[in-house]
Amino acid sequence: MIWNLGSINADNFYYLRHLPGPGETLAADRFQQGLGGKGANMSVAAARAAARVVHIGAVGDDGKWAVDRLLEYGVDTQHIARADVATGHANINVDADGENNIVLYAGANHAVTERMIGAALAEATPGDFLLMQNETNGQAYAAQTARTLGLRVVYAAAPFSAEAVQEVITHVDLLVLNEVEAAQLQASTGAELSALPVDDIVITLGGDGCKWVSNKAKTEESFPSFPVEVVDTTGAGDTFTGYLVAGLDRGFEMVKALDLALRAGALMVGRHGTADVIPDLKDVQDHDFS
Question: Which domain of life is it from (predicted)?
Answer without folding.
Answer: Bacteria
